[in-house]
Structures are given as C-alpha cells and as structure tokens.
Amino acid sequence: MLIEPPVCPKCGKPQMNETVCNSCMKWEADIDGIRSPFRFEGLIRNAIHEFKYKNLRAIAGRLAQLLYEYLVENPVPCEMLVPVPLHDKRLRERGYNQSAMLAKELSRFIGLPVNDSCLIRSINNIPQAKTKKVDERRQNVIGIFQCKNKDLSGKRVLLIDDVTTSGATLNACASALKTAGVMSVWGLTLAREI
Fold first, then answer.
1. Which CATH class is domain 22-192?
2. Which of 6, 25, 54, 160 has its CA 20 to 30 A from that of 34?
3. In sequence order, which ranges of 54-97 are alpha helices (DSSP H)?
C-alpha cells in the first residue's frame, strides 16, 4: 500500500497534517528527512524479503524504478546516492548488499553518481530486525558507521536502503556523513513500517 500525504516532514510517516510528528519533536536527529513510497506490508514486503534474503536480485531494477517514480513526484535535494553499507561479515554471508544494488539501479534512472565506498559499517551489530523497541534500535547503531574520507564534503546526499522502521540506521549514517562535512542527508527507502 502506498504512503499517501500528508506525512511528517522529518520521518515521512503518514499523519493528519504536514507538521512534525510527536516522535520527531522528541528526536534530535541528524538526518534531514526520510521518505518511503510504500508501507512495509503485503506484496512490497514479500518482494523485499525475496530480494534481500532469497537472492532474488533480478528485481533490483524494478524496485529502483519504483523509487525513481516516487522521486519524480516527491523530489528531495540530492546530488549523490550513498547506499547503507553492510558489515564485511554480513556482506560475505549474503553475497551482495541490496541497498547498493538499489542505489546503482536508481542511478541509471536519475543520472546521479553513487558513492558506495565512503561510508562503512565498522561494527557488526545485531540486525535491526532483531530489536523490538525504538530505543533499542537507536542504541544498536550508535557509532557503527564511519565516513572514511572527505570525498562527500559539501555534498547533498541521498541515503538508499530497503526498509526503515525507526529511522535509527539512516540517522546513524547521516551522523557519520555530516561529521565528514556532508551538507545534507535525506533517506529514501522502498518501504517503512507504520
């Protein structure tokens, strides 16, 4: 199911009007905003699970096309795509980073470059899907990302991931990027849990 406006301008959750939601008022986030075209349910949930856990890489292009169509209607300021990185151990286990695949496919549609080497996941934390509460999710990702150079300094970055729940992972990435001089960081995911 599509996420229809109005949405919170910060986290992108649907709500009654376009003011910052109560959760975001209490959250001192580094990310400038998060957007997702779909709720994490039904067909899109199944597609993401097949893509991420069952090696169905063939749908990456179609999923990226959905992101592109969303961005055409809901533009965000960006000049560089950065996928949320996996830790090397998890990358070896899975064999690919689904977020990097989405970013590369999206790049073909919108013509923006991808930088998939600047941001790294230096700590192999437990998967966010195994944490239940928002506070646990935020604690689980503190300090796990690093920006290893200043290549993106002064740039407007669009972080790409498959799903967001609390926004904690995207915010942790934004913190690392902004520490390295990135001007703005928006997050774009296929779906979000509501």
1. alpha beta
2. 54
3. 60-73, 88-94
- Spatial separation of the C-alpha atoms in residues 138 and 116, rounded to whole Å: 23
Question: What are the φ/ψ torsions at residue 4 (nearest 5 degrees)?
Answer: -100, 145
pLDDT in tens, the chain (194 residues): 899 899 999 999 999 998 999 989 988 899 999 999 999 999 999 999 999 999 999 999 999 999 999 999 999 999 999 999 999 998 999 999 999 999 999 999 999 999 999 999 987 776 666 666 777 767 667 777 999 888 899 999 999 999 998 899 999 999 999 999 999 999 999 999 98
Nearest to 159 by CA among 115, 193, 111, 94: 115
Q: Are 156 and 80 in contact (CB under 8 A)?
A: yes
Grouping H, G, I as helix, E, B as strand and the rest as coil, residue 150 is coil
- Sorted by where each begins, the domain ranges of the chain are 22-192
CA distance 148 to 17: 39
C-beta of residue 7 within 8 angstroms of C-beta of residue 34: no
Predicted TM-score (pTM) of the model is: 0.93
* Tokens coding 181: 């001089």
